[in-house]
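thought: user wants a sequence for this fold. calling inverse folding tool.
action: design(structure=
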C-alpha cells in the first residue's frame, strides 16, 4: 500500500506545439498602429527613434512599440520592415490581432532572419510514416465470364447495333447468381466469335475506369488580397475582411470586400478601387465597388464569406467574366494578386473625403 504523502511518478507527455498567448501590451500596440499612419510607421521602423512627445496617433504608436518587451518590440518592427508576420505569430499574435494585410509589407516581402530576441515556434514532430497501402489490384469481375456460359453467335457484316446491359449479382449460401438484362436496337457488327464475351469485357473496363476516377478539385483558386495603400486612415472606412479568387478554368474571377464606417457621421456613398495586379506587381485593371445607402457609424457593410456565396452580397463584389461588366472578356486568370483602396466617401452632412491624388468617379 501507498503511505499517505507518497508520490507517484507519472510520465510527462510533451505537447506537439505550444502556441503562446500574446501580451496585452503587444495587442494594444498593434491596435494603435492600425489607427495610425501605417506609411509613417513603415518608414520609421528600419531605424526607430523615440519621438519627443506623443502628440499624434503616429507618435503614440511609436511610443507604445518602443515600450514593449524586447521580443514583442522586435517582432512588430520585423513586420513593419516587410519581413512578414511570422515573428508576431511566434509571439502569439493572430492575424486578427495584426489586422488586414497590406500588400507592401505582407506580400512584397524582404527575406530576413528572425530577430535574436524572438524564438521561433517549435515545429511539430513529424508523424510516423503510415504503413503503405497495398497497391489495389484490378477487380475480378464476372461479366467477362459470360462468354464461357453463352453460345457463340454469327451475325451479318455491315449492320449496326447499340446495347445497354444491367447486371446484378446476389449471394445465396455458397452459390452466386448473376442476372443480366440486355436491350439492343439493330444488329451487332461481327464476323463470328462470341459477342457476349466482348460485351462483358467492355463492362469490366468501364467499372475499372469509374472506380479509379479522381474526385474533382475545388473550382476556385485563391489570390492574395490586401490593401494597396499604407495611408488610407483619413477615409475612416476600415476594411475588416475580404477575398479574391479565380475559377480554375479561368472563365471567372471575383473579389469581395467588407468594411465599417468608423466616422461619427453617417456615410451615404463609399467608392472602393479593386486593382488587379499582374506577375510584375503592376496594375492590369481597375474595377470599382460603389455602395450607396445609409451607413451609420460602426455598422459593417458586409460582403460574402467566399466565392460560393457571392449571391448573398453581390453589391460588395466585382465579378469578371459576366456580362454585367463593361469588358467581360478579361478574367482574373493571369492575375497574381488583387488589392483594394478606398477612393472616396460622401457623408450625410454634405462633406466628403477623396483619396489624395485621385479623381472622383463619375455617376
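)
observation: tool returned 363 residues.
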Amino acid at each position: 500500500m501507498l503511505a499517505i504523502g507518497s508520490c507517484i511518478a507519472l510520465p510527462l507527455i510533451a505537447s506537439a506545439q505550444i502556441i503562446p498567448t500574446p501580451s496585452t501590451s503587444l495587442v494594444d500596440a498593434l491596435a494603435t498602429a492600425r489607427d495610425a499612419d501605417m506609411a509613417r510607421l513603415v518608414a520609421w521602423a528600419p531605424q526607430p527613434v523615440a519621438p519627443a512627445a506623443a502628440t499624434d496617433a503616429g507618435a503614440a504608436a511609436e511610443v507604445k512599440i518602443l515600450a514593449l518587451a524586447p521580443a514583442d518590440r522586435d517582432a512588430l518592427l520585423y513586420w513593419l520592415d516587410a519581413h512578414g508576420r511570422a515573428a508576431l505569430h511566434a509571439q502569439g499574435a493572430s492575424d486578427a490581432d495584426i489586422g488586414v494585410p497590406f500588400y507592401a509589407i505582407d506580400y512584397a516581402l524582404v527575406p530576413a532572419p528572425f530577430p535574436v530576441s524572438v524564438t521561433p515556434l517549435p515545429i511539430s514532430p513529424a508523424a510516423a510514416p503510415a504503413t503503405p497501402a497495398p497497391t489495389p489490384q484490378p477487380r475480378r469481375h464476372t461479366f467477362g465470364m459470360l462468354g464461357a456460359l453463352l453460345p457463340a453467335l454469327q451475325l451479318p457484316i455491315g449492320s449496326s447495333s447499340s446495347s445497354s446491359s444491367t447486371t446484378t449479382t446476389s449471394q445465396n449460401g455458397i452459390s452466386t447468381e448473376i442476372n443480366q438484362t440486355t436491350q439492343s436496337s439493330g444488329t451487332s457488327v461481327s464476323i463470328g466469335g462470341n459477342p457476349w464475351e466482348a460485351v462483358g469485357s467492355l463492362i469490366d473496363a468501364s467499372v475499372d475506369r469509374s472506380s479509379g476516377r479522381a474526385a474533382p478539385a475545388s473550382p476556385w483558386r485563391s489570390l492574395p488580397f490586401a490593401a494597396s495603400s499604407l495611408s488610407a486612415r483619413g477615409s475612416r472606412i476600415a476594411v475588416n475582411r475580404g477575398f479574391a479568387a479565380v475559377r480554375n478554368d479561368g472563365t471567372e474571377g471575383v473579389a469581395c470586400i467588407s468594411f465599417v464606417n468608423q466616422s461619427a457621421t453617417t456615410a451615404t456613398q463609399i467608392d472602393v478601387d479593386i486593382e488587379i495586379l499582374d506577375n510584375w506587381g503592376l496594375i492590369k485593371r481597375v474595377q470599382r465597388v460603389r455602395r450607396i445607402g445609409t451607413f451609420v457609424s460602426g455598422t459593417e457593410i458586409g460582403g460574402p464569406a467566399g466565392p460560393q456565396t457571392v449571391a448573398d452580397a453581390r453589391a460588395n463584389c466585382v465579378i469578371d467574366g459576366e456580362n454585367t461588366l463593361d469588358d467581360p472578356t478579361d478574367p482574373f486568370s493571369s492575375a497574381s494578386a488583387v488589392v483594394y483602396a478606398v477612393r472616396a466617401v460622401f457623408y450625410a452632412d454634405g462633406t466628403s473625403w477623396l483619396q489624395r491624388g485621385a479623381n472622383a468617379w463619375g455617376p
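thought: summarizing for user.
answer: Here is the designed sequence. The chain has three domains: 24-107, 144-207, 220-350.
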